[in-house]
Design brief:
Layout lengths: L1 E4 L2 E4 L15 H18 L6 E4 L3 H10 L4 E4 L1 H5 L5
Parallel strand pairs: 3-4
Antiparallel strand pairs: 1-2
Length: 86
Amino acid sequence: MLIYNNNCAQLLIGSKIAFQKNEVANSYNMELEGLRRGVEWMDQMDLKLGTIITDRHVQVRAWIGKNLKDVKHYFDVWHISKGMYY
């Protein structure tokens, strides 16, 4: 999907990263593994990630801070408004 903002086209990518439950220790770790695989796929496709929006998952925040230093990271407002913190 293309979104035009200030005469600049931006591409939003929605994808489904599938893996089996036994590939990670537990369901808590699935979110981080999905992010890792998604970022790896984007690198393979030579796509540049400029902004990412996630919930406040602790492992995800730490991984993004360490591995995606040039990427703007925001938290989704739904989780914030519902007071859902991880």
